[in-house]
């Protein structure tokens, strides 16, 4: 058993030590998982919109838009959080698009009960004002995710597709420092980007920020791009990087299990702007739509899915070629993502037929050849 997870999860302990109910809830999560051996939901990602001012070359949300479909209302998000919290969740991450562009952004933050839980907002900083930062703090938010892709402002702005993005991030970092809000730098890396990743880690250190690393995956604007896929050698290099940087966190190493592994469906879920539930924000398959059915039923379905229940030690959407071939590649020709997983013919085999329980035999769709994007 590794203690990395415990150490990394509790790195914000100075911020939560005055929240006894939250500390108790976290302790319950470890107890249920480690002693009672019952999987416990830990975190929910909410992508609340698809609108964004940037045009990042790697955006996983590029196909979130579903014309004609209704997005979740604030009260529905509140109820999904209530259900998640009852299942053990101690935190949520608000994503987009750019979440601050949602007209009811602050109402959604409040609905996730930031004074009782850990609510994190991921923002591109472009429209985030000092006034909103103060309001977030008042609501109970104590950490923001702000991302840049290069320590060189010009290169960064080019990758983000928005001139002046770097300057906005620096402005927000300064503002957060003034108001005692932690800033975390999420870094998306790939084999090619590793040297830049190391520079970004130094940047984070210099600015007193923590950092987390996510892996480039062939989804969203990167779909079909297999040249950036990872391998065991890269994963080992990455693990060494983690061991050398105790403050560095990844999606896969803050589990209640205290083991390194993909949390999808077991400890973590993602809810799209329209209520579709996926294992994480970058996976393109939906296991159900909220609020059409109880969250518990959707999560039970996810936990029967072979690729989740094997509790892979790796990030499956970036490293598992079988998962990518069977579930990620078929999204290429879908007009929007996530697509209903029961539409995928591989699913009935992978989950012991559980796709059938949601309304008849799985609708088969033609498997298209993976074609690289230009
Ligand atoms: S596939 Fe698993 S490890 Fe990778 S980003 Fe999604 S939840 Fe995290």
Structural notes for this entry:
It is a single chain. By secondary structure, the protein is an alpha/beta fold. Helix content is 36%, strand content 12%. The protein is built from 15 helices and 11 strands. It has helices at 4-9, 13-16, 20-35, 74-86, 105-111, 130-139, 153-160, 165-178, 194-206, 232-244, 295-303, 306-309, 316-319, 321-328, 346-350, and strands at residues 43-47, 91-95, 118-123, 143-146, 182-189, 210-215, 249-250, 268-271, 277-278, 285-286, 339-340. The strands form 2 sheets. It has a 9-stranded mixed beta sheet. Strands 10-11 form a two-stranded parallel sheet. α5 links the parallel β2 and β3 (118-123). The N and C termini lie far apart (44 Å). The model is unreliable at 355-374 (pLDDT under 50). Bound molecules: iron/sulfur cluster. Iron/sulfur cluster (SF4) is lined by residues 251-252, 262-264, 268, 279-280, 282-283, 315-317.
For this entry, give a set of tags.
binds iron/sulfur cluster, 15 helices, globular, disordered C terminus, 11 strands, alpha/beta, single chain, 374 residues, nine-stranded mixed sheet, two-stranded parallel sheet
The ligands found in this model are:
iron/sulfur cluster
Give the integer mean of the pLDDT values.
Answer: 87
Structural class: alpha/beta
Proportion of residues in extended strands: 5-15%
Specify the number of helices. 15
Number of strands: 11
Distance between the termini: 44 Å
Query: Helix amount, in percent?
Result: 25-40%
Uncertain spans, ≥5 residues at pLDDT below 50?
Answer: 355-374
Shape: globular
* Gyration radius from CA atoms, angstroms: 19 Å
The order of strands across the largest sheet is 7-6-5-4-3-2-1-8-9
Sheet with the most strands, sense and barrel status: 9 strands, mixed
